[in-house]
Amino acid sequence: MPLSSLAGFLFSYHFTGNSPLTVCFLIGISIARQDGTFKQDVHGNRGMALKSDPKLVRAVHDLTSVRKHSTGEIVSMLRFLYKKDLADTAENRKRKREEKEMQSAMRAASAAGKANEAKETVLCSSVEEVSDELAACGSRKSAKIEFLKKQLAKRMMLAR
Q1: Distance in angstroms (rounded) separating the CA atoms of residues 100 and 105
Q2: Whole-model pTM?
Q3: 83-113 burial string, b = 16+ CB within 10 Å, else e?
Q4: If both were cysteines, with which of 32, 76, 91, 101 could 37 make a disulfide (CB 3.0 to 4.6 Å apart)?
Q5: Domain map of the chain by residue range?
């Protein structure tokens, strides 16, 4: 494969049996170059950045450069994704807050509706009145349960 592009070089380097090129590895080399971590020591030992193929070192530098005016492709991509994640997070927080406010308003409306219904219910003052109302419902069990629920809600509201 001709080395006409940086991607071609990295692709060929990766599949020729050399160590895999991960983003962390590439960024680590770039940071190490900036810090001077892989400079030759006093005993003549050379670090990984100095032992590597010069084409690879240049390609890594071009991809992972963190300088303001010559930002590498990977760093640009990571910065763009970071800004996108921040925007997505803010949008998600806003959407969740609106959903919670809507649920709160719906709960308040439901509670207000129940309170209004309880206020409109006429409270039975004796057991005979309750028996008469239940007899008026006939054999419909659901009507009897509804009547008793309304009476209970009215009593609960008065107890508060």
Answers
A1: 9
A2: 0.46
A3: eeeeeeeeeeeeeeeeeeeeeeeeeeeeeee
A4: 32
A5: 6-71, 121-160
